[in-house]
């Protein structure tokens, strides 16, 4: 009978603790996102391009990739503008440089490097707002032209860039 009373007492104490803590709220996410509980929407302004060599469609690709990631990894809805969480950005670097020189002083590999400067606004907690630059790159064989490999490289780089942006803005690491 004593063991039964201990269990009942523990359940009563636990119930009391839950009852007196209505303001505490734990939010879990499979993506590890730290999203304000009252946030319902996000918006992503079309990224601008200032990098001279950027592909004409690159801004659209990075903008759409960020939207897709946020839609798939959060409970938030996309707003055309003025979302609870707001993203905007500029493509500041888009360049190809040789990275591996062969014995006859020619490039063995080239590197596509892309940088984006992102502004993030959290309308519920301005301490989380930021403006940061994110850079990623992918290498490719020098016997290939950028035109031949650009689509695949952009997909890989964008996947990394948008994950970096997500982690910086919503990642609870």
Class from helix and strand fractions: alpha/beta
Unreliable stretches (pLDDT < 50, length at least 5) are 10-31
Tell me the series of helices and strands, N- to C-terminal: HEEHEEEEH
Kindly estimate the percentage of residues that lie in beta strands according to DSSP: 25-35%
What oligomeric state do these chains adopt? single chain
Total number of distinct structural domains: 1
Give the biggest beta sheet. 6 strands, mixed
Rg from C-alpha positions? 23 Å
Distance between the termini: 46 Å
- Per DSSP E runs of 2 or more residues, the count of β-strands stands at 6
Indicate the CATH architecture.
2-Layer Sandwich
Question: What is the name of the CATH class?
Answer: Alpha Beta
Helical content (DSSP H or I, runs of 4+): 25-40%
What is the CATH topology descriptor? Double Stranded RNA Binding Domain
Indicate the mean pLDDT: 84
Q: Give me the CATH superfamily.
A: Lipoprotein like domain
User: If helices are DSSP runs of H or I spanning 4 or more residues, what is the number of helices?
Assistant: 3
Shape: elongated
Question: What does it look like?
Answer:
This protein is an alpha/beta fold and 173 residues long. The protein is built from 3 helices and 6 strands; from the N terminus they run H-E-E-H-E-E-E-E-H. The chain has a single domain, classed as Double Stranded RNA Binding Domain. Helix 2 crosses helix 3. It starts with a helix and ends with a helix. About 13% of the residues have low confidence.
């Amino acid at each position: 009978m004593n063991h039964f009373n201990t269990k009942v007492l523990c359940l009563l104490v636990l119930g009391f603790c839950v009852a007196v803590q209505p303001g505490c709220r734990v939010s879990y996410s499979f993506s590890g996102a730290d999203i304000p509980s009252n946030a319902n929407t996000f918006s992503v302004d079309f990224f601008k391009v200032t990098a001279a060599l950027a592909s004409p469609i690159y801004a659209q690709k990075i903008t759409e990739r960020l939207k897709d990631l946020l839609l798939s990894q959060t409970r938030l809805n996309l707003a055309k503008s003025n979302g609870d969480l707001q993203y905007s950005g500029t493509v500041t670097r888009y360049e190809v440089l040789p990275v591996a020189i062969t014995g006859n002083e020619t490039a063995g590999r080239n590197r596509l490097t892309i940088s984006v400067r992102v502004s993030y606004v959290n309308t519920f907690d301005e301490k989380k707002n930021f403006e940061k630059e994110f850079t990623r790159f992918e290498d490719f064989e020098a016997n290939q032209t950028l035109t031949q490999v650009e689509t695949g490289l952009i997909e890989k780089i964008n996947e990394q860039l948008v994950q970096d942006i997500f982690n910086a803005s919503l990642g609870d690491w």
